[in-house]
Every structure is written in structure tokens, then in C-alpha cells.
Amino acid sequence: MAKVPGTKGLNLDESLIFERSRKGRTGFSLPVEDQDLREISTSHVPAPLERKDGLDFLPSVSEVDVVRHFTRLSSWNYGVDSGMYPLGSCTMKYNPKISEAAARRPGFANLHPLAPESLSQGALQLMYELQQFLAEIGGFAAVTLQPAAGAHGELTGIKMVRAFHLDVHGRPRKKVIIPDTAHGTNPASSALNGYEVVEISSGDDGVLHAEQVREAMDEEVAALMLTNPNTLGLFEEHIAEIAGIVHEKGGLLYCDGANMNALLGKARPGDMGVDVLQFNLHKTFSTPHGGGGPGSGPVGVGKVLEPYLPVPVVTHKGDRYHLDNDRPKSVGKMRSFFGNFGVMVRAYTYLLEMGPAGLTRAAELAVLNANYVKSRLEKYYHLPYKKICMHECVLSDKMQKANGVKTIDIAKRLIDLGFHPPTIYFPLVVDGAMMIEPTETESLESLESFVSAMKQIAKEAKTDPGIVKSAPHNTRLSRLDETLAARNPVLTWSKHD
Amino acid sequence: MRYLPHTTQDISIMLHELGFEGIEDLFAGIPHSLMLQRDLHLPGPMSEPELNRHLENLEKANPAASCISFLGAGAYSHAVPAAVDAIVSRSEFSTAYTPYQPEVSQGTLQSIFEFQTVTAGLLGMDVANASMYDGASAAAEAVLMAKRVRRNITRIVLSAGLLPEVGRTIETYVSALDLEIIEAPLSGEGILDLGALSAALDKDTALVVQTPNFLGCIEDMRSLAGLAGEKNAFFISFTAEPYSLAVLEPPGSFGVDVATAEGQAFGNPVSFGGPYLGLFATSKKYVRRMPGRLVGLTRDGAGKQGFVLTLATREQHIRRARATSNICSNEGLCALASLVHLCCLGPEGLARAARISRANAEYLKAGIAEIPGFSIPYKASTFNEFVVETPVPANDLVQESTRHGILPGVPLNRLKNGNENRLLICTSELHTRQDLDNLIRVLKQRGA
Amino acid sequence: MNIPEDLKYSRTHEWVRIENDEIAVVGITDHAQEQLGDVVYLGFEDEEGLTIEEGTEIVKGRQFGVVESSKTLAELYAPVGGEVVEVNHTLTNNLETINDDPYEDGWMVKIRVSDPGDLDDLMNAAEYKQFLEEEAH
Question: What number is the average pLDDT over the span B237-242?
Fold first, then answer.
């Protein structure tokens, strides 16, 4: 059995930064103020609007304090660079260091978004090419890079759907159909656009069937939103037929591109009848998740939706790149400027390094890794859908429940053994779900080590369930009391707490 | 391929376990007709040296990045301590995701809690969230929240002093709601016309005000607060340049319902427009109605202090179609950069940087006003950004100045259609006296 | 599972006790609190977010509140229609009572029943028990 990396390590305690504060300590190095200038400045302050609290909510600390504080905090985190992070649907693959260096290049980082276009051609070229690359990968006519995250991309996509119906049919229509396996952002994005959400169930085989769609589909449906591969890790094999049914009634097909990693170079949503899809650059194109962001959620669209893209779109004429704001049918703007450029630079760098064959290989190995883990674990954990999976597989705690061990316990015990847990209790259609997405950047040894950890837990669930139910044991803190946090929310620090 | 660790032998071991002959068997679930029958038409692969050369060439095509810049208008450059990048480069922070598993995410969680504390303090509010996509989307989310808190709201009054991008984002966000959007005009002084505003407000309105506004002028928040209170309008503030909060009374002291801001200037590079972060703060009574992630204090099984994501029932993964917002993340690393930046600066450093920025602007204003043909059209007080009336189209001035390695400002008509002879100039503590004098000299060459 | 014999039950897991022939005392069942887990929030509000208070006329089947645990939430629906005569505000600061004592101190609202016919639609203890068994499958 392969060795698991989990062990007890050196753990340093650390208080809040505010508790390190000592009056008189500083962590900055700024020019000394010019006294003449200071007088000019203060003479113009409207006195009643002047701040008087002395900014006393900020700590007074040295640079040493700051660096030590945050370095200690960082040691309490688990990242992709720490080890395998099989968080399903989040595609926690390795984030190349060259992409980090690329985004920090001064020619990108110091470029102001309102600098003259003629002096920002390099950045515009990069954006233009990234639009083209994504359009090619997804099989789309056009792409906007503006959305800041996947959910933001969904919101943008559904706005375009709405603008299309208003423009073509004179009304936005009323409903969006969403399968029960969908991410929670899908119904939320639809509702924010004023749509009533109609939930339909997937079949017993875990995928959506044409009959269900046909039954729910009418001329009040603006769009059907599906995820492909879906959150069970299964390819929606009837997608082409479903697209036909939706289109026949004048609706549009939205595809949540969260799971695009499985399809790179193998199949393209645009070729399957998808009208609009959001990419997640922080998943598929390997930009770091940053503890929750920044991400980037470009949206690809077919010809019919192109006029409604948010402004600006980067265009190319002759040897010049240009920000096109003159788009009368555009939905408008989803945020300031053009999107998370720093994230685009990272994804662009990744795409160029991988090349077309490398990307296809990434998809293949992601699928191979997921199937391998599934195959190695199906004797020990209940596998609700017994078929070939794509980039992730879903197991459940059904076999362990008999001994009182639940998914949450298995997740916490994995931490002890040195792994980040999978996505748990999602998708909702599987009771006690564990959604495992190893990604292509995990080696066979690393998968074997994970399998060993999962097998050990399955064994412990029978022989020593207590150790699983009380995990984690090796972390600085044991399980945290979420009820206490929610009953009396303390969301900021104050001296008296 | 350096990111794909599989050897040929590994692959055959794995396929053997699965009982398959080749990897293509794993894609049998995709109907053949839907498979791509050709290679993707993409460039690459490139080696690291080739890629670096290519990126260098792209950088060179961005000469604006190395100019002395007086550009602001929603994206601000300030002095950032090197410690900030050293911390955000730590991959324990950058390669982690949303802290769903608190026991292995305390670094992210505690830093967000500290960020919330600092943000609430800056804006003078009770509570702040873990950050939003950017300032514009934060302002738009505030308007959506206004509508949730007060169902009776039928009209959104946007100050004409809002950065046009922010106004446009709000309009886009609320486009599916049945809301009337009107613009409250500015007076000749460059700040909101109180008479016109008064006529636009009532209990069924939400008001969004930016201060300093996009012309750089500091709004009379006291009077605006009085008016919003008297008319019982839902009051939302937006701050584009957060350094202004170091010298101006925070929005919370004027009783705003929601305070929003663009947080980029704290520790994040201008980076051609993103990633940035939105600051979002409100009062305690609205905490269950606010969008975005929240981190709260709690204890572990042994009673030790720790942090968790909390009040999650507001969010999409539980409430789905009835969530307060569809947002399911924050701008984590940008928020961390802001926090580290603000901790390094501390109260003294932040105040000093803000004072120097403002003093530099006053120095420039006085110098430019003396150049024949140039004038300062708005009389209201400003912070570090102000408008100049130019004798020639501002765009021409920009083109000429860049030859001297200076970006003198943003032509106002790039932000909003209108007078082409107006330039928006912004300064910070990064500018030396020589930079300021150089700008004045370059503009003088075009003086009448 | 505690299902007191003397109460009436709704299909949405509220219980009703009739006092003085016309006042319906309403709370959530033992089963409901167990499904939720530790309650972290109780809000007396309708679907629109409007406050439910003494004097509010409530329609049978409409939302009178929302109860949340750290992981999930449930709407509370009025099992009978009528005027709300009392709201158990002490619960708001003693949320554990909803978990610990759902049938006594954990009561939530008292409603003056406007149509006694509403009560006929509710289940008795045996019927509710059977309903729970069916729901489990």
C-alpha cells in the first residue's frame, strides 16, 4: 500500500494582526512630506468632511510583524502546491509558475486600463488572441473576457439570452429549465435575471433525457441550462437532441463550462448545439484559485448571441487592435474595464505552453485519473453510477453509514492523512456525495497514495469508527463550531472581544 | 510536458486496471458524431525561453506601462511595499480555494476576518464582506440589496458624478428588474445639485453617490445625508479612490445604508483593469440581506479560537434561486494584498500617502491654472484627482505628452461623451516634485 | 421520535395545539428540528420578507417565518389561517429551545383560527407518523 503524507507537523500559533499592534511601530517607507506642499493641501480641506478617527482600526506594526504574521497564517492553509486537492468541479490542477511571473511583468502589471490604445497594443493583442483561442476550443463565434468569475459569466450569459429574446421575440420569455444536478449558481443567475426556474430530473442513469426536456419545453422557456460533463462526472450524451428540442421552440441552450477540462480538444460545446457557455480560466486553464479568487469567466457564444456581448470587445483591423464600444445591442457592462486581465495573462501563457496536443493530452489524462481512482475505490465505497466517468467521479458514504461514519467524517479524516477532501454533499441528487476530481497533474503515485488513504478510512470505519468521527486530529484546530458562528455572528474584531 | 507526470508505463498500468486498450476508450460516452475529428487550431507548444521571449515582445508593445502616469479614473497607482507581493506569492494562499474545509483553511479564513475588520473600519460601517468582483459590481450588488431590503423601491437615482462605468454596470445588473433609473445632475461647481436631487428622492428611491466623484470633486456628504434621511431614501455610497478614505470622513459617519468602494489602490497593480476587488459594507441590521462571503469567529472542539464561513444560508448553494446574489467566491488574493498593504502602511503611512497625493494634486492644480489657455473648471474641493480645461482637445495633449514619456491624464470624453477639451489628472505619493514640474512644463508647451 | 398524541400536524411539519377552542399554538415538530440540526436563526417574515407580528392576518399555507441551521433552511407555513395574536420573541435569543423543547417552550406563534374547517385538513399523531414513514421512502 502506498504511503500517505499526513503526519503531525510544526504548528505555530498566531494571534490577530491587531493584537500585535504597538503605537510607534511602522511598516512603511514613504517620502517625507514637503512642508510647503502640506500647507497647500490642508488649506483646501472642507473641515466638516475631514476624517477624525486617526484610522485607529489599522494596526501599527513593523514589516517583520506583517511578514511573520502572514507567513504563519499561510502555514495553516492547504493548497495545490501542498498536495493533491481533489475538490470536484473545481479542477484544482497545478498552477504553473511561469504564468505567475508572466502576470507580474511590469509591461502588464503597470499598464493602466485607460492608457491610449496605441500604447497598449501588446495587452490588446493578448486579449484578442485569448478570445480567439477560447472560441476555437469551445467552437464559438465570439467570446467576451469581461466576467470576473464563473458565476459572473453565467449572469452575463443569461443577460445575453434575455437581450436576445427581447430583441428577436419582443419579450424576454419567462422560464429557464435547469436539471437537478446543476450548481446552485445556475438557478441564482436565472432568478437574478427575472426568470422562473423549472427544475427537471435526470434519468436513473445520471443524465438528462430528451423526453424530460420535451415535456418541460414550451415557448415561454428562454433557455435550458446544463452542465456538460455534468456534476456526476457524466457526459450528457443526448445533448445534440436536447439542443434540437430547445431550438425548435425558439429557446437557447446554455452550457455551464465548469467541467470543460474533460473536453479540451476532444469535443466542442459549440458543435453540440450549445449557444452560450462560460469558461472558468481558474479551473480549465490553470490559473490559481487564490483562496476564492480572482477567477475569470469568459463567455463564448454562437453567431445568434454575438450582437449582445458586453462592451468592449477587442477587435483586430489591419495591424491594430482596438476596444470596440460601439455595439448598440450590447447588454452593457458587467464590471469596470475589460475583465481580470492578470488572470487572462496566466491562462494565455498556459495555453501557449501546452499547445493543442498538450491540451488534448491534459483532458485525456484527467479522465484517465478519475476513472482510475473510481476503479480503485469502488470496492470500498458505494458508487451510485456505474459507468465510465469523465474528469471526476462521485462516490457516497452509503457503505460506511452502517457504522455511523458519514461523508463529513471521511473528509475530515482525509485531512489527517495529508489530503484536501473532495467536494462533499454535492451534487444534491446523491445522498452523502463525495465528488472526486484528481485532475491530470496528479501522478500515479499520488493517486495511489490517495487510494491508500481512502482504503484506510474505509477500514477504520469498520474497526475504529471513533477515530474517523472525531477527525481531524493532526491539524492545529479540531472541528469548528459552525452553529456558534452563525448564532451570534462576530464578523469583525474589536478590542473588547 | 512538465505538468503531466504520466510515463508511458504509468498509462499502461492504469489502462490495465480499467481493462481498456487505449485512452480513447474512456471517451466512449461521447457520441462519435460529437467528437472533434481534427486537432485544435491553436499555436504552441512553446518552451519556457520561447514563451518568455514572446511575452517580452507583447510587453514592449505596451509602452504606456513605463510612462510617468497621471491616470486615475477608477484605477490608481500608489507605492506598494515589496512585502505585499512576497506574501500573496506564497502558494499556500494562492493555490488554495474557497475555505470550505476550515481546519485546512485557517490562513485564508483568519486573513479574511482581518480584511473584514479593516474594511468595515475604513468605511465606518458595522460589517463588511469578504470582497466582491470589483467596485462597480459591488455598487450594483448594493442596488440589488436595496431592492431586497425595501420592496417598495421603484426608482434608482444615480449621481451624474458616478464613474460612467459604474453607472453602466448598475444599469446592466438591474436590467431585468422593473426599476426606473434616473441621473441626478451636477452643478457648475462639480458636485451634486441639491435642488435637483431633492426633487428626485422619496421613500421609494435608492440613491447612489460617489465621493470624491469622477471629476475628483468631494461631495457635500453631510447635506446629501440630510437629504436622503429627510426623504427616507435608501442611501448607497461608492468610493473609487480608497486613499481618499484616509482624509475624508467615512461614509458610515453619514448614515449610509451600504458603503461600497473599489479596493484596487490598496496593494493591487492597475494591471490593465483587473483583477481588482470590491469593498462592501453595511450596518448590522442588514447582515442577513447582504451578498457575498462572510467569515465569522468561532471555537473548535477544544475551545480554541478559529474562523469559518458563516451565514451561508444567504448563498446560492443553499438558497439556489432565492439567494441574495449568485456570487460564490470573492477576490481572495486581491483582498489579501489589500490587507497586507494596509497593515504595512498602518494609520500613519496611509494618512501620509494620502496627504502627499492630495498635496501633489494641489501643487499641480495651482501650476496648471497659471498656464495661459488652461483653467480649472470646477471649484469644489478635490482629493488627488481634478479636471483641467485644455486649450486643445485633451486627446491631442495626451498623444504629444507620451512622446515625453508622460501620460498626462484621461481625456474626459473617453469616459463620457462631451467636451473634448477636458483632461482628468491624478497624482499620488509616487510622483516626485520633478514629475509634477515636468508635467507642467509639457502642458505649457501647448499653452495659448 | 416524539409525536404527542394531542396535537395536529401539517404536511410541512408544523404542529398545532388548540387552546380555548379558538387559538392555534404553532411550532415545528421534533422530526423537523432533527432534520434541520442546530437552529442558528429564526425570522418571523413572509415570502416577501415582511415582518409577521401581533395583528398580522395570515392565510393558511402561507409563510410565517423562516428557520435556519448553519447548513440549511426551512420556511414555516401557517397550518391555519387567522390573526396572529402572539409571537414567541423569546425564541430569537434562545434558539436552542427549538431543538430541545419543540412542543412546549419552542412554540412559535399563536393564531386566532378564523375558519375551524382549516383544522380538518391536518393530520392526527397516527397519521403524521405514517406520513413520516412514507416520506422516508
Answer: 98
pLDDT in tens, B382-404: 999 999 999 999 999 999 999 99
Residue (of C125, C92, C128) closest to C109 by Cα position: C92
Domains of chain B: 68-79+347-444 (3.90.1150.10), 82-340 (3.40.640.10)
Could you give phi then psi for residue B287, rounded to 5 degrees?
Answer: -60, -35
| C45 at interface of B, judged by CB pairs closer than 8 A | no
Whole-model pTM: value is: 0.95
Contact A425, A12 (CB under 8 A): no
Residue of B nearest to C48 (CA): B151
H helix or E strand, kind and range, residue C40? strand C39-43
Domain boundaries, chain A: 99-352, 363-476
Q: A99-352 domain in CATH 3.40.640.10?
A: yes
Q: Does the CB of B392 have a partner CB in chain A at under 8 Å? A: no
Q: Are the Cβ atoms of A90 and B97 closer than 8 angstroms? A: yes
Give mean pLDDT, residues A218-242: 96
User: According to the model, what pLDDT value does residue C46 have?
Assistant: 87
Decide yes or no: CATH 2.40.50.100 for domain C8-135.
yes
Torsion of CA A139, A143, A146, A147, to 10 degrees: -30
Q: Where do the domains of chain C lie? A: 8-135
Question: If you classify domain A363-476 with CATH, what class do you get?
Answer: alpha beta
Residue in C48, C70, C71 closest to B151 by CB: C48
Chain B residue whose CA is closest to A476: B103
How many CB pairs (< 8 A) connect A and B? 684
pLDDT confidence of residue A183: 85
> What is the band of A23 on the pLDDT scale with cuts at 50, 70, 90?
very high
Nearest 5°: the CA angle C101, C102, C104 is 70
State ipTM.
Answer: 0.97
Residues of A in contact with B316 (CB under 8 A): 151, 184-185, 187-188
